[in-house]
Amino acid sequence: MAKAASATYIDGAHNVIKANAGTITYTLCSAQPTTRTEAVTTFMLASTTLDKTTEITLANGDVSGRKMTISAKTGVSVTNTGTGNHVAICDASNLLFVTTVTSQAVSAGGTVDIGSWKNEITAVA
After folding, report:
1. HEC states along 35-104?
2. Using the 8-state DSSP alphabet, how is residue 28 labeled?
3. Would you say 87 and 99 are in contact if contact means Cβ atoms under 8 Å apart?
4. 0.85 exceeded by pTM
5. Where are the domains of the chain?
6. Is residue 81 a contact partner of residue 44, using CB atoms and an 8 Å limit?
7. Which segments of the chain have a pLDDT < 50?
8. Contact 77, 111 (CB under 8 A)
9. In angstroms, what CA-CA distances link 42 with 22, 27, 29, 113?
10. CA 41 to chain CA centroid, nearest Å
11. Which of 9, 21, 92, 124 has the fewest Cβ atoms within 10 Å of its own Cβ atom?
């Protein structure tokens, strides 16, 4: 028997972020965080919030399934000096998603631009 998943089902994973009732914290990190504390404190270089209505978009995937696109953020205030190589998305109590980004050195007191990226969950057929 073939397997298939509807867009609604696949969007369930992305909606943990997009439809979350709370504030979504978005951090540039110096290493891959495995907990919320690491994402917002230990490895955090810069932090901002994501506007769920305008900066998180769900759409058909480029290959199949569905994708979540996170808009670029410009002029994010840098809190700690280091080299950012991951971004993390958190709600008030959970680390929800982590991905790699192009490494960039940042300095406390400056600003950083974080480019747009997407996560695609392919449909199973």
Report:
1. CHHHHHHHCEEEEEEECCCCCEEEEECCCCCEEEEECCEEEEEECCCEEEEEEEEECCCCEEEEEEEEEE
2. E
3. yes
4. yes
5. 7-121
6. no
7. none
8. yes
9. 22, 11, 9, 21
10. 16
11. 21
